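In the previous chapter we treated chains in isolation. Here, by contrast, the input contains two separate entities that must be folded as one system, with a combined length of 273 residues.
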Amino acid sequence: MKIATYNVNGVNGRLPVLLRWLEESAPDVVCLQELKAPQEKFPLDAIEEAGYGAIWHGQKSWNGVAILVRGGQPTELQRGLPGDPDDLHSRYIEADVNGIRICCLYLPNGNPAPGPKFDYKLAWMERLKSHAKGLVGNDHPVVLTGDFNVIPTPADAYKPERWVEDALFRPETRASFEELVAQGWTDAIRTLYPNDTIYTFWDYFRNAYGRNAGLRIDHFLLNESLAPRLKSGGVDHYVRGWEKTSDHAPVWIEIGEEKARRKKEAAAGQIDR
DNA sequence: ATGCCGTGGAAACCACGA
């Protein structure tokens, strides 16, 4: 099963790019962020025509997240990140897809820092950790994916020294992300490519993509049940070179089938020794 | 060092992004 995440930066303005990428890469599951469209303006007809069922949480002008399933329909489990009824941003949606829990998130940017937007980011990360703690050790496979707006390490930024004061790279942000991962999550892309330069975002200006001046901020975190099934993954960076494209590129992983023996044992409640 | 570009929405500029 191929699972992808893509910050589209406007799902309607980006529709031709999105449809072309769906056709060419044919992911089974897609998590979208930054729809920038109200609930009723999501381009469901075009998405369905491309062969995908969808659930989404829209918002006028900003944010917005969606989960797409090729030849199927996601079963919605959660809409909005729990823990703060006053948080009205559309940044989180969760669904079951063929036995895998897909958690699609758009973590707040947090700039300028310090300030109220940075406080909101850190508070949002605390709520994410509270929610994720209940998922990481689950027998059920879980993936947390999306635009985390977190540069995890200096290796994940072009010229990291320029980002030390930025909300994506400040010590508080990195420490909070480290705490999340330390619950037991596997950073899938970094695990697959421990020593490579991997970017998922490039600024629109100063020819950032042409110079490969990017950031790795779109991530896949796999829980303990799912991590052993990670087969491969990568960044569809060429999409960033298309006309009228997003400033993010799609990122994807391939998950192998659950071993029949393990499935049988799990059903019987046995422990593998 | 910098929103230099881009999107959406309201109003011919502004908020916001990373």
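Residues 2-267 of chain A form a domain with the Deoxyribonuclease I; Chain A fold (CATH 3.60.10.10). Chain A has a mean pLDDT of 95. Compare these points with the single-chain example from earlier in the chapter.
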